[in-house]
Amino acid sequence: MGHNKEAHPESHFRVPAIVNALEKLELSPKFRGSNVIELETFKSASLDDIASVHTRAYVSGLEKAMDEASQQGIIFIEGSGPTYATVDTFQESLVAAGAGISLIDSVVAQSKISKSPPIGFALIRPPGHHAIPKGPMGFCVFGNIAIAARYAQRVHGLKRVFIIDFDVHHGNGTNDAFYEDPDIFFLSTHQDGSYPGTGKFDEVGHGDGEGTTLNLPLPGGSGDAAMRAIFDEIIVPCAQRFKPDIILVSAGYDAHVLDPLASLQFTTGTYYMLASNIQQLAKDVCGGRCVFFLEGGYNLDSLSYSVADSFRAFLGEPSLASEFDNPAFLHEEPSTRVRQAIQRVKQVHSL
Ligand SMILES: [Zn+2]
């Protein structure tokens, strides 16, 4: 709650909005007993956990910057573009990354006793997928999902990690962390030309990691139909071919049609479909082991209802999207250009 800047879209109102929606829609542990488990006690990530992805110089530099933040209130971290920090940012970012790690532990433990373990969902911030190894970037401080991927490998022996990033922006930090790593497949869909401008078709990994990075930039206006086709034609065959031990998801809700920061046309129903299909995919390819990480999503209503409908998907309950989605906000998807993008990525990756 201390990592906050007045009127900034990545604000401390985001997680409480989601938690309130989960309460209101009776999706919290209070209403669901053991079907929805909240992890209440977990450790902050250690500096070694963070250093599995980030440079020690960045981590110690950020810790030192907290002194300056305590005097000035808000600071902007050098070289980071629009990433703010407050006096609480360092500690709270360790808590966020630690929550993701704890969910890995919990889901892995459950997967040893059940073929359909619960899906983990890290309702955390600051988000992580833009943070690069040597610094913060784009509202992101530590690469929560990248840190969790390294942890899953190191501590649980889950060697092969499949990361799906459906945030509207390119997950450049995760992309960079694993660009030469053949054991971590990074698949990102994002709006072509949106921040930070990376994630082109020909960014496919390098060296031993060539072919285990897949970037799919989508034309503005792409929406539900585009994402359904991409799931069936790109995500499923890539995961089946890669044979992961766990699936991690950079779940950004800023591709929603109502989100103020971009112009794709996902709906609550699109997020329900993604949650349901990814859960099934995890059951099919990796014993159901799957953890979602909150990334973007800046319209508090579309963010919180989309996460809540994702929870309904995980619980095997029908979507409530028709109550939240207003078809009047939607216009026709650029289906020809979407088809061209899908064909191009299939060609690049021999799918
Ligand atoms: Zn985003």
UniProtKB/TrEMBL annotation:
- Say if the entry is tagged with keyword Repeat: no
Question: Which GO terms of the cellular component aspect does the record hold?
Answer: cytoplasm; histone deacetylase complex
Q: Which domain of life does the protein's organism represent?
A: Eukaryota
Q: Which cofactor does it need?
A: Zn(2+)
Q: Which residues form the Histone deacetylase domain?
A: 8-312
Checking InterPro entries in the record gives: HDACs, His_deacetylse_dom, His_deacetylse_dom_sf, Ureohydrolase_dom_sf
A single Pfam family it belongs to is Hist_deacetyl
Keywords associated with the record: Chromatin regulator, Repressor
One of the entry's Gene Ontology molecular-function terms is: histone deacetylase activity
The record, for SUPFAM superfamilies, names: Arginase/deacetylase
Q: Name one GO biological process term.
A: epigenetic regulation of gene expression
* Database matches in PANTHER family: HISTONE DEACETYLASE 14, CHLOROPLASTIC, HISTONE DEACETYLASE HDAC1-RELATED
Q: What is the protein name for this chain?
A: Histone deacetylase domain-containing protein
To which species is this protein native? Malus baccata
In the record, what lineage is assigned to the organism producing the protein?
Eukaryota, Viridiplantae, Streptophyta, Embryophyta, Tracheophyta
